[in-house]
Design a protein that fits this description.
Blueprint lengths: L1 E7 L3 H11 L5 E7 L5 H7 L3 E5 L5 H15 L3 E4 L11 H10 L4 E5 L10 H17 L13 E4 H6 L9 H11 L4 E5 L11 H17 L1
Parallel strand pairs: 1-2, 1-4, 2-3, 5-7
Antiparallel strand pairs: 4-6, 5-6
Helix pairs in contact: 1-2
């Protein structure tokens, strides 16, 4: 069973095309509606996705962990993390899964910087993402070309062992950091990212750092 987990918050205009594109590459699509106030859940359900609803907005990390709990329940062999806003290209999924299997890895992380298909905004490419790479490397000891990319594939062992505790965007750093401590093998794979909106800016990046540092001190 190859399960796509799609965390979604008010993505009714785009969620339909995302779900349709995924069904060509995975066995089942799970949409975790994270407290949407629009028709995201209805659209997803009508297109054949399984839908779990958070009654309040908890954050993308919490939505992904809800998806992991569902994956453990159904015994999924692989899970795909895939954003609901149409930024990713489902055509990258099959090749990524093949690479994960061939290299006998536990987690595959997408990278915008391993080919030239993604037009990354200047501040993201030259400021936000390099800072993220430095935090990964010197604080958590993880060497990655792309600090925060929501395209991931995890195998069954990683699904069972890796529990996400960061409810919001800091989960993107927590996942590889925890994976390294658990001695799970991580690889990267080129993926295309198309920006419809700017996404997380400098303020969002600072919130990620704050959440991560707080979590280290309270444990």
């Amino acid at each position: 069973m190859f399960l796509a987990i799609v965390p979604a918050y008010n993505e009714a205009p785009r969620i339909g095309s995302v779900i349709r594109s995924l069904f060509a590459h995975v066995d089942r699509v799970l949409v975790v509606d994270d407290g949407s106030t629009d028709e995201t859940a209805r659209v997803a359900g009508e297109l054949g996705a399984h839908v779990i609803i958070h009654r309040v907005n908890r954050g993308q990390g919490a939505a992904l962990e809800t998806g992991h709990a569902y994956a453990r329940l159904i015994g999924a062999e692989y899970v795909l993390h895939f954003d609901a806003d149409g930024q990713f290209d489902a055509a990258d999924v099959s090749g990524a899964l093949q690479q994960l299997r061939e290299q006998n890895a536990d987690i595959l992380l997408g990278s915008r910087f391993m080919d030239v298909r993604s037009r990354v905004p200047w501040t993201k490419r030259h400021l936000i993402l390099p800072i993220g790479r430095l935090i990964h490397r010197f604080v958590f000891g993880v060497h990655l070309s792309d600090a925060h990319n929501g395209f991931r594939i995890l195998n069954k062992q990683a699904i069972e062992l890796l529990h996400i505790t960061q409810d919001r965007m800091a989960h993107a750093t927590e996942i590889p950091a925890r994976a390294q401590r658990l001695r799970l093998r991580i690889i990267e794979h080129p993926v295309r990212v198309t920006y419809h909106t700017y996404g997380q800016g400098i303020k969002g990046g600072m919130n990620v750092v704050k959440d991560l540092l707080f979590s280290r001190f309270v444990k």
